[in-house]
Amino acid sequence: MTTARTRQASGRSTRKISWDVVRTGCVVLVMLYHSTFLSTFLHPEMTPRDLVFPYQVGASLLLVISAYFACVTIGRGSVLRYWWGRIARLLPPFLGAVVVIFAVMRWAAIGGWFYPSFNDLWWNLLMLWNWKPADYWFIDGSHWTVPLQLMGFTAAALLFRTRWGHGRRIIAVLWAAVLVPIAQWPIRVADKSELYRTIVDGIGVHRWHLFVAGVAIWLWSTRRIHLLHFAAMLAACMLGQALHNYSETPEGLIADWGSTVAVCIGMVVVALTAFGPDWNRFVPGWLAGRITWFAGISYGVFLVHQTIGYIVVKKLDEIGVDPLLQTAAMLVTGTALGWALTRVVERPTHKFLMRAYDSLAGRRTRSSEA
Q: pLDDT exceeding 70 applies to what percent of the chain?
């Protein structure tokens, strides 16, 4: 969500404004889903929202976009530097967000809500909920994407170093990554083995199709696969998304077709954004600047808006503030905290860690040449 921008000599970004629009739209959809639907679903004692967006779509599309830009950037420089850059971008703000959210949850504790212990803090910093969410509770539910992105970028770097990351072999890897989860889906919804669920959910098998979709979009947009091949692969990814959105209930399996259709439409939008021209002719300059600004802080916003936003909404609900204003307060709070996290943690630590890497790499080069 925070791909580094390529700069021209003038210092202006060469990235298409259309990507900033799509990224901003995805994060806003995540915030709307959490503020208008999930807030009262998780805390039914709060006043129902007047306007509700009940579709889980934004976070899934952000993983698609991440996979696409992994393909765009992985060939620039060494693979190790690419991998380190992704770690340096994702991990420090995540760790900072966990600490901030933990502190707020304890400082502004609400009776009857989850009150995290210091053990919960360590478990969240280590992302143990990715393996056993029933035992290790989320401090913030939005964080489920972080380990998947870290694993995805690591897998991309490892594949790129081998023959399996290029040519026809990568096509075979992609098809396996989307078809194997589909084939094992009946086992996933029927098998109650704790070990099986820990492994399969821990490595995110049921979400691999989102990464495959992003890579497939890059392959098609760069004309490495033809349209029919791309359509077949994207259709398989859409099937994977449909199966993922089935939930186990006492009445049996229930499909969330609204979210499924929304994500499938979003995949097409991402593909058209990658393949088509920039939208700069349709986005006014004054709006483009604001969209680019928000896209630049979108990862920070994503990390800190949910749990703290729920606390803000609850406090306002207790004093009788209108639900629409509560939603607006959650959006504003998330944006402000996301900006602060980006300025104080994300950008400085990324800059420091990349300078440290380049300095160490330079020393190794000079030593080998001596």
A: 95
Pick left, alpha or beta for residue 112 (phi over 0 → left; psi -120 to 50 → alpha; otherwise beta).
left
| High-pLDDT (> 90) share of the chain, % | 78
- Alpha-carbon distance of 35 to 330, in angstroms, equals 7
Q: Quick one: which of 160, 153, 25 has its CA closest to 89?
A: 153
Q: Which residues pair with 30 in a beta bridge?
A: none
For tokens 């992105």, name the residue.
Answer: 149
pTM (whole model) above 0.85:
yes
The string of pLDDT tens digits covering residues 14-40 is 678 999 999 999 999 999 999 999 999
CA distance 232 to 218: 15
Question: What is the C-alpha to C-alpha distance for residues 362 and 94, in angstroms, rounded to an integer?
Answer: 29
Read off the pLDDT of residues 98-149 as tens digits, 9 standing for 90 and up.
999 999 999 999 999 999 999 999 999 999 998 988 889 999 999 999 999 9
Distances (CA, A) of 207 to 60, 92, 149: 8, 24, 11
Q: Which amino acid is at 164?
A: W
Total residues found in the chain within this entry: 370
Q: Is 241 within 8 Å of 209 (Cβ atoms)?
A: yes
Whether the Cβ atoms of residue 156 and residue 170 lie closer than 8 Å to each other: no
Per DSSP, what are the bridge partners of residue 247?
254
Two structure tokens written together for 63: 């993983």
Q: Which residues contact 150 (CB under 8 A, 6 or more apart)?
A: 86, 87, 90, 91
